[in-house]
Amino acid sequence: MYRKTIAYRWFTGFNATLLTLIxxxxxxxxxxxxxxxxxxxxxASANQVFFWPVGFNAEAYTRTLENPIxxxxxxxxxxxxxxxxxxxxxxxxxxxxxxxxxxxxxAFYSWFFVFTMLFNGGLIPTYLVVTNLNxxxxxxxxxxxxxVNVYNTILMMQFFRAIPKELEEAAHMDGAGxxxxxxxxxxxxxxxxxxxxxLFAMVWHWNSWFDGLIYITDYRxxxxxxxxxxxxxxxxxxxxxxxxxxxxVLSERTVRSSQILIGALPILLVYxxxxxxxxxxxxxxxVKE
Amino acid sequence: MMETKKGRSKMIRQLPLHLLILPSIIGLFLFNYYPMAxxxxxxxxxxxxxxxxxxxxxxxxxxxxMFTYPDSVQVIWNTLLIASLKIAANIAxxxxxxxxxxxxxxxFFKRFVQTLVxxxxxxxxxILGGIxxxxxxxxxxxxxxxxNLGADPVFFLGNGTWFRITVxxxxxxxxxxxxxxxxxxxxSGINMSLYEAAEMDGASRFKQTFxxxxxxxxxxxxxxxxxxxxxxxNAGFDQIxxxxxxxxxxxxxxxxxxxxxxxxxxxxxxxxxAVGLFKSAVGLVLIVLAYRLAYRFGNYRIF
Lengths: 289, 303
Hints:
The structure holds two protein chains of two kinds.
Chain A: H1 6-37, H2 41-45, H3 59-66, H4 68-100, H5 106-118, H6 123-132, H7 140-143, H8 150-161, H9 165-173, H10 178-189, H11 191-207, H12 210-215, H13 224-232, H14 244-250, H15 253-286
Helix pairs in contact in A: 1-15, 3-15, 4-8, 4-11, 11-15, 13-15
Chain B: H1 2-37, H2 51-54, H3 61-68, H4 70-102, H5 107-122, H6 125-136, H7 141-148, H8 160-188, H9 192-200, H10 205-229, H11 237-243, H12 249-252, H13 255-265, H14 269-298
């Protein structure tokens, strides 16, 4: 009934307008940066660019992609994202499978995992452990400390638990061991959740910058996120070890914008796939009967 | 005799399970539990050369210093202020937004809005910090517009008060969309017959929202709210670190950025660890408390 009242129709119109405005506000900054990155240098520094390129050209991109340091850090990021995701998913899957079984050690292992979510040694002790293990300036420093993702493991465990036990019992009857039932029953049945968690892990690795800043001492070997961070925070010279000459070229507005956009591009590309999965995946762990 | 044999064969049968989880256990031990032992340096005058075992013991003096040194007191206060503002806003704004989105009937439009508002959540603060420092700087587009409107320039990132406002508002902007997911999920679980009954009794849509939708959300809101309590000392390291500069250290510095600067930049390992331990300990107490409350209010359990 209420849908026919005039007041409700006014509300619907107002609501649709408001929601549209808010949604646009969420991507406007990104559009602005994209517009600046495709504008001429002079138009950008004169603040003539809003949400459409002025003096369209792609020079900033060619200059960015010709910069060997940038390319190298891009490569580092790809390497880190792929190896880190692979390692972390392997650990997530095996640990989640074990935690989804009923056996005598389960309670202990569960607490061993959960306690790390409640308490941690903090920045300095963790830094000293990584340094003392001689991982500094290696790829291991970026992928090992975060390899076990407790949150993802719990989510994966919930997925595994939803799979009917009868399937595994039948496999056991036929002589299959744990590893075999994990690989031939559980993994094929949870491909969508595996894809979701892998995407989340990839986004996490791509976006991580702080470990690069503290564990990699030579800026030429930074992963992209760390490299971008030092460029953007370039005003505070104490935080960077990039020589001023390089910094000058890199910190030009259009070039910086193109770098930001290239850094965001992989996320924008996988976002449609992420979005299809995450609503289901997130609410699944939250609701219990 | 039978018992032990049975026990042993059970153990052999379960051995693969222990082996499968072993790599994760080693990982957690090395990078999560082993560093906890390093917390002992909060009570020492730690010298890397001497190690944990031989560095001189100083007891609680770092903690005494922390609560009397004006800088660290200010930092704790900044953290509490920024974090509690964020927590309050990040509960209120998503609820209102979810209620508005719930009124949309056209599925296409709903999807469109959701796609756009969830996006900022997935971009890192490095990217967003880069965009914001460019747009909000004194040569940025926002101040350019303000100038054209005849207004004075605003130092969003150079003035302490404005910095705090910028931090809270940009955090809402990044996270509000994603935070609506849990409320939308709860709303989709509301029994439609409740709305029909309310309508029979002559309730307007507004009244239905207040007397049907909101009460149904209360358990979720309580759970989200209590769990957020555990974050009262997490004011957002990534965000602050990518936005701040020496001009706003006084009003914008939080525990995590402070620990980074005095610990890793200035090399005061022990004092930084003490500040970090204070944060972790308060966090632990609050999280345990929050989980107990959440369990009581909403039957929420992680396992």
